[in-house]
Design goal:
The protein is of the alpha+beta class and 483 residues long. Helix content is 41%, strand content 18%. Helix 2 packs antiparallel against helix 3 and helix 14 packs across helix 15. The longest helix is centred in the middle third of the chain and has 20 residues. The radius of gyration is 29 Å and the shape is elongated. Heterotrimer of A, B and C subunits. Its EC number is 6.3.5.-. Keywords: ATP-binding, Ligase, Nucleotide-binding, Protein biosynthesis, Transferase.
């Protein structure tokens, strides 16, 4: 039997306000445990919440960015459950009347196609504290610094059909919230977390299967691995005659397996009811239009501009706009070098390779946009070849000096003297008579081209890669045509 995976994601985005959603306590990351939890966060008697307008503004900004309906009236509810890191015994959230309604994003897939993914809604809520297990043998420590931090929970429709699509959707949400400046999106620090709802069904079946929820997955790579692992588990379970239970599971990256945490709760288990301490949030069209005026150029708009203004294909532009810093880096290189396509090739080629190899982002890249543009300029003016440029780029990455210093100090300047290149060509032809004979005796154009390129390679090797490739081609072709 063929199976289809059905996936929906709940993405929790920590909003970049300076204070918490219902108190004036700081949201700065990295403080000593329990030093940024005030009386409101600790649920002391008589303490009343006061809504942070900045969180409302950020939620509306996100809704507008995904073309969602913005609720003129939204309501905060109490979600009741008891856990050590939840001082009040309930979480303030939005169940029935969220601030952001239905919207949609378009995701880019590896085959250069796009796919729409619906957003069911997005609601504001407060975060809980953090349980600490590592430093407490046989006990659990509680840090309440995070309690009350504003979150926007973005709930997708179950529109994704593969782990690859889910990861692409998560990247798109990350791109949007960071472009908007409403979150830093740092998944390693918990600024963005993801719950994956996964079910399987036979291909062609309309009815959804029973879903499980994989809680708190914290990287794009782990989202893919967790979903694939859980889908395989469910398929194997069903094919062996078992049934999938609706439950919450945890992904163990070390063992690449999901484990049951608890039976999945239903909404009525939380006994939701409107929070009596908070008035409904009412906003008008003027407020929404004011927020709309603050929207920056978003990833899809930037991608369209890059294809229009810089002559890039959509496939080339898509990865460049995944984050604002990378898009800015590209634009700086493209304008300074005057060659947008080569700028894109360098950024998505050598630069991306070294960033992935060193597990860093463009913000941490040791080669500035200006340095890369200068390097490209040295290729354009014939100072170095493209092959040598890669060597210079590695040296720039390692901090060995400026582009011109590296070229000068390492003697990498391209040989463009026709007399010197002609001498090298003559040397190669005299040392490789069999290769010359094979080339001259070949009648198949494709094979002849291959043998010509082999001779070019010998000349480049003799020059230690410094000979001007175009001149080598011209002189070698002229010499061979006389034979």
């Amino acid at each position: 039997m063929q199976w289809e995976t059905v996936i929906g994601l709940e993405v929790h985005v920590q909003l970049a306000t300076q204070s918490k959603i219902f108190s004036g306590a700081s949201t700065n990351y990295g403080a000593e445990p329990n030093t940024q939890a005030c009386a409101i966060d600790l649920a002391m008697p008589g303490m009343l919440p006061v809504l942070n307008e900045g969180a409302v503004r950020m939620a509306v900004k996100f809704g507008l960015a995904v073309n969602a309906d913005i609720a003129h009236r939204s309501v905060f509810d109490r979600k009741n459950y008891f856990y050590a890191d939840l001082p009040k015994g309930y979480q303030i959230s939005q169940m029935y009347y969220p601030i952001v309604g239905r919207g949609e994003v378009s995701i880019n897939l590896p085959d250069n196609s796009t796919r729409p993914v619906g957003i069911h809604h997005a609601h504001m809520e407060e975060d809980a504290g953090k349980s600490l297990h590592e430093d407490f043998h046989g006990q659990t420590g509680i840090d309440l610094n995070r309690a009350g931090t504003p979150l926007l929970e973005i709930v997708s429709e179950p529109d994704m059909r593969s782990a690859e699509q889910a990861a692409a959707y998560l990247r798109k949400i990350h791109s949007i919230v960071t472009y908007l400046g409403i979150s830093d999106g740092d998944m390693s620090q918990g600024s963005m977390r993801c719950d994956c709802n996964v079910s399987v069904r036979p291909v062609g079946q309309e009815e959804f299967g029973t879903r499980t929820e994989i809680k708190n997955v914290n990287s794009f790579r782990f989202v893919e691995k967790a979903i694939n692992t859980e889908a395989e588990r469910q398929i194997e379970l069903i094919e062996d005659g078992g049934t999938v239970e609706q439950e919450t599971r945890l992904y163990d990256a070390d063992r690449n397996e999901t484990r049951s945490m608890r039976t999945k709760e239903f909404a009525n288990d939380y006994r939701y009811f409107p929070d009596p301490d908070l008035l409904p949030v009412e906003i008008d069209d003027d407020y929404i239009n004011d927020v709309r005026g603050e929207l920056p150029e978003l990833p899809d708009e930037k991608q369209a501009r890059f294809t229009r203004d810089y002559g890039l294909s959509e496939a080339d532009a898509a990865p460049l706009v995944q984050n604002q810093a990378q898009a800015d880096y590209f634009e700086t290189v493209a304008k300074a070098s005057g060659d947008p396509r080569q700028a894109a090739n360098w950024i998505m080629g050598e630069l991306a390779r070294l960033m992935n190899q060193n597990d860093i982002t463009i913000d941490q890249c040791p080669v500035s946009a200006e340095s890369l543009a200068t390097l490209m300029g040295r290729i354009q003016d014939g100072t170095i070849s493209t092959k040598i440029a890669k060597q210079v780029f590695e040296a720039l990455w390692n901090g060995e000096g400026t582009t011109d210093e590296i070229i000068e100090n390492q003697g990498l300047k391209q040989v463009s003297d026709s007399g010197e290149i002609e001498s090298l060509v003559d040397q190669v032809l005299s040392e490789n008579p069999e290769m010359v004979e094979d080339y001259l005796g070949e009648e198949v154009a494709k094979k002849q081209k291959k043998k010509f390129n082999a001779l070019v390679g010998q000349v480049m090797k003799a020059s230690q890669g410094k000979a001007n490739p175009a001149q080598v081609n011209d002189i070698l072709q002229s010499k061979l045509s006389k034979n």
